[in-house]
Fold beta-galactosidase.
Amino acid sequence: MPKYLLILLLLIPLSLRAQTTETQYLSGTDKDHTVKWKFFCTAGRNSGKWTTIGVPSNWELQGFGKYNYGHDKDTARGKEKGLYKYSFKVPANWQGKTINIVFEGAMTDTEVKINGQSAGAMHQGSYYRFKYDISKLLKYGKTNLLEATVAKHSANESVNGAERRGDFWIFGGIFRPVYLEALPPQHIERITLDAKADGSFKSDVYLGDGTSADEVVGQLYTLDGQKAGQEFKGAVTGGNATVHLETKLPSPRLWTSETPNLYRVVMTLRQGGKAVHTVNKKFGFRTVELREREGFYVNGTKIKFKGVCRHSFWPSSGRTMSKALSIEDVNLMKDMNMNAVRMSHYPPDEHFLEVCDSLGLFVLDEVAGWHAAYDTQVGTKLTEEMVKRDQTHPSIVVWVNGNEGGHNFDLDPVLDRMDMQKRPVVHAWQVFRGTDTQHYINYDYGNGTHLQGHNIVFPTEFLHGLYDGGHGAGLQDYWEQMWREPLSAGGFLWDFADAAVVRTDKGGILDVDGDHAPDGILGPYHEKEGSYYTIKEVWSPVFFERREITPAFDGTFRVQNRYHYLNLNQCRFTWKLAQLPSPGSKAAPVTKTGTVTAPSIAPTEFGPLKLSLPADWQQQDVLYITAIDPAGREIYTWSWPIAHPAQVAQRLVSKQGGSAATVSESDSLYTASANGITLAFSRKTGLLRQVRNAKGIIPLSHGPVLAEGETAFEGLSQRQEGQNVVIDAKFGKASRYQSLQWTVYPSGWVKMTAKYFPKDYDFQLAGLSFNYPEKEVKGIQWRGDGPYRVWKDRLKGTNLGVWSKDYNNTSTGEPDGTKSPVYPEFKGYYSNFYWLTLQTTGQPLTILCDQEDVYLRLFTPRFGAKPYNTAPPFPSGNLSFMHGIPPIGTKSQKPENMGPMGRANMYYDYSKDPSYAKEMTLYFDFSGKQAQAPTVGQR
């Protein structure tokens, strides 16, 4: 104990200290602070012998037992148990008090003995706080022995069905803290409360057995210790074990996800005017309503959930968490502009709820159940335990009774009875009490259901992430529909982070159990995948209406306030103009910055955001705007191009040189040369065969090849055009090519221009490809949108800039052996391409594009063993320049069912008029000049 805390404790009178509940931890407090207990595992690794284990923990992560995923058909189920022993002392002056031993969570059936005597009936169920009164079993001032037997699987089959056969990792052990609480003989057991937005406050105070005290006195405080309102009282009458109290606070500061204002209530039990026990709780004033056929309201404002489902999980500790991780998780959610989280599929650690209270997230708290439900007897007990622990948290706005068929309807009245606030109760993936929480709904779900129906719709799971699919992919379509539909209350993504567990039985590799657990927006150690930034932009409460930056731009944007409660004038805005570096430059971008007067725009309303830009803004390359929320958190940074690819290419491409380009021919090749560069073109295929300079071969070849469609190549011709060499291709009538031309300039720069029609009216791919040996690539520097790759239905979440990236072979969500995935991934499609420099084991290669809306394709990613709908097509070759790229689906949905952005590309060509052909112009620098990565910021 720190010295200053000890001094403070000694200064407090003993009589006052005796009024509060005293706590003595027997275990550690979290995954990073454990206490060694004696341990015996009955089956699996390191079984059959007494040793020690850190508590709290899941024993698999400590080297014991067997790893199980919930879908396992393990014949050894029921044989794996953990026997725990721990010796402890309690103060002699605790005698006469009520002493409870409290388990915050143990998996799954737990039997407890103190000094060889049973503490009470076996507890069944993993995720719930339970306690025993052990006052009569203790030796005060002496050593006591705690013995606990924990069975990984329950003797109650309904518990196994609800908890142990789910689509998630199954662990064993005492995974949350264990402690003693000492209460005075006359004491308060617990309180419930209801604090409404109008300032009314009600509380039921539950007293211990045999209480002879005469009153309970309440006082509200602000968190800085100032009294809020007057003292209020309730009498203890006729042996009644419950005291009801009420008061009202004029004009309280309200709790919402955007304004998480908290108060504290102190309840004091008095006997003859003397305080005998005091408890306190944090809470928030807020009113929750579910208005039938209308919407979900908090404090009279209709809200839409921007939520995610979250497991309590960390790779190296399983379900044993810490408050530091809770803070990190909530901050990551808030950074993605989320306002809600669903506790899937069980109640979390209480410190997670405390963080949601203080930082501001709406919470759906859930009774466990996964395709199967608890029976009524055990389910009632566990539901009561959940509500007793969690009822006072203002962040909890909905109770969830089971998941995907794991609903026991007998538990709904338990939730109604136990919750003084009468929060709404829903069944995840069911139409229930006016809500439709169907999972993985298609964008247009059909007549009479979903948004065509009459219920309030908020899928408690949608866009089931797998590898790089789902989450951000499809979200823009879904969210715009949800935002505008009056009966939509938003929804919850599945899920927060990849559940990759450290396999202590396999040398410490990360294991996601095939395609079962790589479902996260984040990697296992919270690495940010591409969807993280897409979600951040799509769910931004500041919405920019689309506009182009033209010479007529006056600095004005039209923006919408998509907060529920805050005016945009409570946010801050800054702008930055940047001149981006050229290929190989070490220089950082040259920038000019400024601030923006935040406009007064009420929630859901549109208004102007006006920038005062310098007179030379048109000489810059890109404009950035950053929005910052009232808490100082970045909402998002957006970018708009000022200089377009044609302007940049004109700056960078040098066409003039000393001597004219030349061309020679043989039976099979045309060979063009200029300034030490030699290019060979096949007269049989029309494709680039080889590039060479004075240093050797640059291995770009076999291109350009159409991504889709018939080529019908007929031949090449060549001509001298001034100092340039021009090589033209000729195609037959069946060809999708209209023209293909190479121009070799005296400088050695080479221009390629192609015109073509996509294969069909709707198509997956459109563009041109080359070959480049992947094994020779070390990295890339490029100008365009980055640093993350994109899909057709996941274009948001990037910024225009100059980016650098080392080569990696990351398959999103799939750990590679013992290594964690490296993000951002290297391979894939990149939008808004200007130029690239490939950094290789040989000579660098620089390619520029002078047209807008071109995608760069870098090689083909590895996809998971069972990718379902998350392995989009890639063209032949491995270095491509595309006009059309594919969308990506989710584990449970094809992309075409996820909204307009998920459908095939469409290009209507009825006339075959060449003026409607797609055109691609690329410039190649084959000089082999060594490009160096610029010093530019990445996320």
Summary: The CA atoms of residues 721 and 743 lie 9 Å apart.
